[in-house]
Amino acid sequence: MLEDRHTDLAVLARTLGFGRLSFGSRERLQRILGVSPGAVTPFALINCRNRPEIDLTVALGRKMLMTMPLHYHPLHNEATIRLTPDDLLLFIRKMGFEPEIIDFSTFSS
What we know:
alpha+beta; 3 helices; two-stranded antiparallel sheet; two-stranded parallel ribbon
């Protein structure tokens, strides 16, 4: 979602049918995505490719996908990559994930 968005994670979790949602611990981020806190990025999905044991849902904000260009860290927070929403979706799908497009304004706190 856009960086200035505030979302009620409890409402989002109930709506999506998940249990409790929270930010991942340092250990979990490293184990699942191969990144550290502060460097979480869609590009980390490359570390999940071909790992069927990982149960991961990719959710993207509808409003974010109308923003040009998008900016993300490339697996560390010392650089930034700029790309279009279409290129982001193409990358995510090439990694084997079908993203859920969500209107996060529904879950604003």
